Amino acid sequence: MTGPVEAVLFDLDDTICTYERSADDILAIAFERVGVEPFFDAEEYIERLGEFSEAGSGDDIRDTRRAAFGTFAAEAGHGEAVGEEIADIYTDERDQANVRFLDGAERALDALADAYRVGMVTNGDPWMQSQKLAGLGIEDRFEVIVHGGHDAPYKPDPEPFHLALEELGVDADRTVHVGNSHASDVTGAHAAGLRSVWLAEGEPPFDHDPEPHHVVESLHDLAEEPWG
């Protein structure tokens, strides 16, 4: 039986914050400096990153990125060293703390932290994600932070959600998870038995399965506690 909500878990990237410079912007700089035509984009990079990181291994994102870009280069007919050089430029150019709140995110965090236990389940390297939280000044807002791909497999695997619930001491059916990715956040939350809130900013009308329990267009809506 579903009871009242006691805890709220958040995704980080493109839910609470976004980079001031996009991944494609930085890739364009890297390709130009190396002097080759682009042979992959940010979408492919993000979709395939899991191929190069063993879940729970604690791999450094910088090493994982070098392995990924080296493989992409080899597949495109360049030497792996070309991809590794692009990865190194990308790392130098990417300031992980140069992020900003998405509209309504800070208000939602302030409102919900007063009423609920608050945690985070994010896919990403702790080295990288901690800089984003510090850049936003919210590193102390969360009682627990679980990093998919490091502390547990990547979302949508249910394990990172289960780890967060165990740390908080809250049941799954008393917890909602908020995220922008239907594939990772909604699917993962449902697999773990949580209620889902999908941030569908700019998305077309809903036609995905599983259907999220709640859909919000911005995090301003989240402050109104749609599950209530």
TrEMBL record:
<dbReference type="GO" id="GO:0046872">
    <property type="term" value="F:metal ion binding"/>
</dbReference>
<dbReference type="InterPro" id="IPR051400">
    <property type="entry name" value="HAD-like_hydrolase"/>
</dbReference>
<comment type="similarity">
    <text>Belongs to the HAD-like hydrolase superfamily.</text>
</comment>
<dbReference type="GO" id="GO:0044281">
    <property type="term" value="P:small molecule metabolic process"/>
</dbReference>
<dbReference type="InterPro" id="IPR036412">
    <property type="entry name" value="HAD-like_sf"/>
</dbReference>
<protein>
    <submittedName>
        <fullName>HAD family hydrolase</fullName>
    </submittedName>
</protein>
<keyword id="KW-0479">Metal-binding</keyword>
<keyword id="KW-0378">Hydrolase</keyword>
<dbReference type="InterPro" id="IPR006439">
    <property type="entry name" value="HAD-SF_hydro_IA"/>
</dbReference>
<dbReference type="InterPro" id="IPR023214">
    <property type="entry name" value="HAD_sf"/>
</dbReference>
<dbReference type="Pfam" id="PF00702">
    <property type="entry name" value="Hydrolase"/>
</dbReference>
<keyword id="KW-0460">Magnesium</keyword>
<dbReference type="GO" id="GO:0016791">
    <property type="term" value="F:phosphatase activity"/>
</dbReference>
